[in-house]
Amino acid sequence: MMPPEILALPTPAAIHAWDSAALSGGSLERGDLVLWTTREKLPALCRFLKEQRQFTRLVAVTCIDRYPVEPRFEVVYLLHSIPNNERLRVKVAVASQDASLPSVCSVWSGANWYEREVFDMFGVRFEGHPDLRRILMPDYWEGHPLRKDFPVHGHKYSYKDE
Amino acid sequence: MQPTDTALDARLAQEAPAEPGAPRRMILNMGPQHPSTHGVLRVVLELDGEIVTKAQPEIGYLHTGIEKQAEALGWQQVVTLTDRMDYLANLSNNLAYALSVEKLLGIEIPPKAQWMRVMLAELSRINSHVVWLGTHALDLGAMSVFFYCFREREELLRIFEMFSGQRMMTSYIRIGGLALEPPRGWDRAVRNFIRGLPAKVDEYEALLKENPIFLRRTQGVAELPLERLLDLGVTGPMIRAAGLAWDIRKAEPYSGYDKFDFQIPVRHESDVYARFLVRIEEIRQSARIVEQALEGMPEGPWKADAPRYLLPDREKMKTQMEALIYHFKIVTEGMRVPPGEAYVPVESPRGEIGFYVVSDGSSQPWRVFMRTPSFGNLQALPDLFEGRLIADTIAALGSMDFVLGDVDR
């Protein structure tokens, strides 16, 4: 749940006033604001943050694999507002069963490659993404390299076969 | 057998004209071994005559799994990987990583180390911009600028070698401070270089600034409005050439940048020429910062006092029991970082670089996400290419100033 000291900060307070169910948690990590939301609320929250709180820049989208804990993935949206000089991280927990999230490409065009990267590296699918395919790994690659159960060495591909 | 890039071939086949009467289009493959892509970028161009109707960048040819490797190394060892991303601005990468981990550790960096870091980061910005200027001019047909710029770069690499023993893969900025004590005579070497630089920059600028060929090839080429650039996640000089005076060194000062006096060069045209002018001016501003760092360099230690995380001095280790214990603990167990996560943005020569580091309390990072400026900036490529002349693609590409090692990681 939301700690009261987080809700006292301007951005969480504004989100709370707009939709009290949009946030599912929040904390300060080494002084940086981190807010948790849910899969259903994510697109609306992103649009609100961009349009009402001037978070015009999507810095990056990335993911953390908490294997073997479930829900396994934390998809992280790093946001930045240049006019307010404010940074914010929005997180969504994603379970390994049906690992998917709505895409935010319609909010920030720059999300395109970052979502492709998360899909490529972690296997989290983004619904509504215009062109969801691998970006760094070859198209024929099997598996998602940054998952914790993907080995650093000794994968089935090796240079000997080539 | 080598698997083929079947999905891409299938897409290419789809893009062929459906019926004979349709307008004729040509699919042109550019790269990954094209000299003007500055690395191994592949762009699939769809042409209607001389106009690019569609550009599709394909990246990943230099993907080495640095983020995966980082999870298998110790915290301090990851510094060596950061060198290999953006190999023209290694020290900016080192700095960004060190700052993020230091935020997790909560350690205070002594002033001398901070000033040294600022100075080295600015020298690497000059290095990166000088290489960019030389190669960009070469792409556009001005060969002599390339030779001059690489002469400057050579001097800079010698300075980096003097500091760290390595020309490119410096790994000189470490978690907690610097890797080594600055070498004897470093200030003279840096001063000699920086004194001569402004006159040389003027000369290089003069070679291009009013050069009619260069003007024709850059002015009004690859324009893109600021809103679109921001929406695509572009950072750095491209944004400043589009009229936004936003620089992380000013907006969110790190490592003591607030104590330095410098300006943010801004242009409003947002074309290749404006990006050139912004970068040239940034070299001058960086030279100013380096001079200020030289003049006001504080005395004191070059490493933080954090015995739990950093190896003690050799002398202490041999004379003090405590230091010996810490030395043993750090060498055998590795540096343990308290659980948590941190992200510190840094203004690299190309834009915002930042390492999103996550620790689970062990001696290896749980996750190191590298937010690299080149990856973000390269997303603007289709916008810069489409609907424009194929002859301008090289100028547009050069003006983005990406490093493929930084894109693919």
Features:
heterodimer; A: 162 residues; alpha/beta; 5-stranded mixed β-sheet; two-stranded parallel sheet; 4 helices; 7 strands; 22% helix; 28% strand; B: 409 residues; mainly alpha; 3-stranded antiparallel β-sheet; 18 helices; 8 strands; 11% strand; globular
Explain how this protein is built.
The complex is a heterodimer of chains A (162) and B (409). The mean pLDDT of chain A is 86. Helix content of chain A is 22%, strand content 28%. Chain A has helices at residues 4-7, 10-18, 42-52, 111-122; strands spanning 23-29, 32-37, 57-65, 73-81, 86-94, 100-102, 125-127. In chain A, the strands form two sheets. A five-stranded mixed beta sheet of chain A has the order 1-2-5-4-3. A two-stranded parallel sheet of chain A has the order 6-7. With 162 residues, chain A is α/β, with parallel strands linked by helices. Chain B has 409 residues and is mainly alpha-helical. Helices cover 49% and strands 11% of the residues of chain B. Chain B has helices at 6-15, 66-70, 78-83, 90-105, 111-139, 143-164, 186-209, 212-218, 226-231, 237-240, 248-251, 272-295, 314-319, 321-333, 373-378, 381-385, 393-400, 404-408, and strands spanning 26-30, 42-48, 51-58, 173-174, 177-178, 340-348, 351-359, 367-371. In chain B, α5 packs antiparallel against α6 (143-164), α5 runs antiparallel to α12 and α5 (111-139) packs antiparallel against α17 (393-400). The longest helix of chain B is centred in the first third of the chain and has 29 residues, at 111-139.
